């Protein structure tokens, strides 16, 4: 452990001593640091003035502190412009975020560092709830109150801090934390309610430990900002079952509350999306065509899936390149990059694949793969 505060010259310490610890788990000797197991930490230096509450081993917390030592605030988080939204009570939903000015598609709406972090290996360990409560308490009265004020799953009867984490945490993977990753709570992002055709998309940036939220479409003043809590490429009944089982509520968004015949048409489109996926994703088969990929783009648009439309653009780029049409391939590759970078981040394999296609379509693995495959038959 550090013998002096681990901090930048002008900031508060990044390392603090554990507030409480559990004994090491049997068979996890490699995790022992000073004979300690999973511990609770609270430090203001990660995200001043909010701070970070963490449940992890001392070794992993030290790795986090060291990785943060020479890092300055990202350009995304350093902006001083006023937020384009306000928090307010939404009937039937609790607190939500409402746009206060026009927000253009592609605009960054949030770049928020993590506030509560639970090691994936600590999740569910006997006694972890007490560590979580201690870590949140260590943030101080004001910030601990804000964390505890976040929504919990309907009907939750356990501890407040655990309920907040179960109801608001994102599964994230940092550059430390091992194969199990982390569960992270972001105060502002947690105020975003669910919709099955959300107007916001997001991705987690591992370097800055920030959740970045972008507008997937134009949003007007007075509209609620929303993200998705479940897989949206499912029929309405399956989506409702998933939301009810995990979060305890029934979705009342526009996509879910249409007249029965319109809802049936939506479910039919979802099934067609799934069918087209299977065909265009079968690179060794002969059913995928550029026209089917174009239809996939249209279906995403009809379902209001702007936060995931990069998936359709990517498939259209592959199909046109597989057909030997450089211009159309690069067009969809550019569209896929434009949305994919915002909604998924720059470290995803499909982003690198699209960049390679833009650079040289003929050098990409997909060049004429549909045409050449048919010629070999």
Automatic annotation (TrEMBL):
Sequence ranges assigned to domain SET in this UniProt record: 82-230
Pfam families for the chain: SET
Annotated InterPro entries: SET_dom (IPR001214), SET_dom_sf (IPR046341), SET_domain_protein (IPR053185)
PROSITE patterns according to UniProt: SET
Entries under PANTHER family matching the protein: SET DOMAIN-CONTAINING PROTEIN (PTHR47332:SF6), SET DOMAIN-CONTAINING PROTEIN 5 (PTHR47332)
Protein name, as recorded: SET domain-containing protein
Organism listed in the record: Staphylotrichum tortipilum
């Amino acid at each position: 452990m550090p013998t002096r505060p681990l901090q930048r010259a002008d900031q508060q310490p990044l390392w603090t001593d554990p507030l409480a610890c559990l004994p090491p788990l049997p068979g996890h000797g490699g995790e022992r640091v000073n004979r300690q197991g999973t511990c609770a930490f609270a430090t203001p230096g990660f995200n001043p003035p909010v701070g970070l509450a963490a449940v992890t081993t001392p070794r992993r917390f030290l790795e986090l502190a060291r990785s943060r030592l020479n890092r300055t605030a990202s350009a995304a988080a350093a902006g001083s412009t006023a937020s384009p939204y306000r928090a307010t009570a939404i009937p039937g939903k609790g607190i939500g975020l409402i746009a206060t000015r026009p927000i253009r598609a592609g605009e960054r709406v949030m770049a928020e560092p993590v506030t509560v972090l639970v090691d994936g290996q600590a999740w569910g360990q006997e006694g972890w709830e007490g560590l979580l409560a201690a870590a949140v308490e260590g943030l101080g009265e004001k910030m601990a109150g804000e964390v505890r004020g976040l929504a919990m799953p309907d009907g939750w009867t356990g501890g407040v801090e655990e309920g907040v984490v179960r109801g608001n945490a994102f599964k994230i993977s940092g550059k430390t934390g091992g194969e199990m990753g982390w569960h992270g709570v972001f105060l502002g992002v947690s105020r975003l309610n669910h919709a099955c055709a959300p107007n916001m998309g997001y991705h987690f940036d591992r370097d800055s430990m920030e959740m970045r939220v972008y507008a997937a479409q134009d949003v007007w003043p007075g509209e609620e900002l929303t993200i998705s809590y479940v897989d949206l490429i499912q029929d309405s009944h399956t989506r409702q079952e998933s939301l009810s089982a995990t979060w305890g509520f029934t979705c009342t968004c526009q996509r879910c509350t249409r007249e029965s015949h319109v809802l049936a048409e939506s479910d039919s489109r979802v099934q067609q999306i799934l069918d087209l996926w299977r065909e265009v994703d079968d690179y060794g088969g002969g059913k995928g065509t550029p026209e089917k990929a174009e239809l996939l783009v249209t279906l995403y648009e009809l379902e209001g899936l702007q936060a995931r439309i990069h998936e359709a653009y990517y498939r259209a780029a592959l199909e046109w390149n597989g057909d030997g049409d450089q211009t159309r391939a690069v067009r969809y590759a550019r569209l896929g990059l434009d949305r994919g970078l915002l909604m998924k981040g720059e470290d995803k394999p499909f982003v690198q694949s699209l960049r390679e296609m833009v650079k040289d379509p003929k050098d990409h693995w997909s060049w004429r793969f549909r045409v050449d495959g048919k010629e070999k038959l």
